[in-house]
From TrEMBL:
GO biological process: cell division; microtubule-based process
Entry protein name: Cell division protein FtsZ
Organism of provenance: Priestia taiwanensis
Keyword DNA-binding: no
Residue ranges constituting the Tubulin/FtsZ GTPase domain according to the UniProt record: 51-152
Cell division among keywords: yes
Record keywords, A-Z: Cell cycle, Cell division, GTP-binding, Nucleotide-binding
Ranges in a coiled coil: none
GO terms assigned for molecular function: GTP binding
Pfam families from the UniProt entry: Tubulin
Cellular component terms per the entry's GO annotation: microtubule
Amino acid sequence: MLRIGFMGIGQAGGRFCQLAKAARYQSIVLNTAQVDLDGLTGIEPIKKLHLKGYEGAGKDRFVAKEAFDAHVAQIRHFASTHLSDMHVICVAAALGGGTGSGMIREVAKLLCDMFPSKVIMTFLFLPMQDESLKNKMNAIEAFSEISAVEDTGAMFLASSDVIKDRHRNLPLYEQYTLASMAFLSDLYSLQQKTKMQSVYSNIDDMDVLTALSERGCAMLSSFAYDDATDTNTIQSRMEASWRYNMLQVGETTEIAKAVIVVEATSDIPEVAKVLPPSIKPYELYQGAFVSGSNKITTLLTGMALPYGIMRRYQEDVEQEEKQVEKMLHKRRTERYETDKIWTEQMRRKRSIRV
């Protein structure tokens, strides 16, 4: 089975990796803030790296880059110690913050240079549309940087807006926990199938590795069906599992690679027909398995970037940019002046000291 390891950067990346550790994945975390690392009680101290000299980045991406440059040798040793045996390394971070946003490109490039034969993929949280202007600026800049790294593999972009809409009755932490665990569960289920015999066509480790190695946005989803479900309904549910997924992509019609796993308790649907006719991936890996449940899991990679989301962030920034610049300039330069100095006139001439 493929060995997949996770490296979390910043608070959000660290929390995601703590869940990955609970799901039995090798997980390590690094942060500029010791307080965030202390909160990750599920991860062993040896697998936490505090970039000393910093106590958070204050949402400043340049502080994070400075911290990376100051500790690059330490980060390299940290990754080499704990991730050398992995086939796939997934770097997790939030694009709207400081530490993860500022370091994601640098860490991804470092890992690509260190491990040229491994797949380096990313799992990135996008900020909500109602978050601060600074968060959106950070996300735009970080996404521009990481999307330019050509040696990386699949990029999973998680929409915080979709996560919130899906679990709006729950506290924020639980929303992200459920969404992250759903992704990790689907990933583990996909890995397991490479050890099983398929009644249609086997899916091996190299098939999944090849799919994950494809550059561009990626989507992982699953849905249940019952024995009476016909092919058209299965195709509709498959498209819905993509449309309402927390993972964001540009277009679902342009796909480089796809892995389709069909599980059934008895009558297995014809695998070749479950894929909607409009979907024609360049490479397709399919498998059908007798299981205790009726479920279909899909992994799509090599998909277009979500330009629409980034443009909305940029429109919000450009709309308020001048007003914010004016306000900040005023606050950082304004002063109150007076031509009266009463205390000097009323001060006693005789000076006394203790």
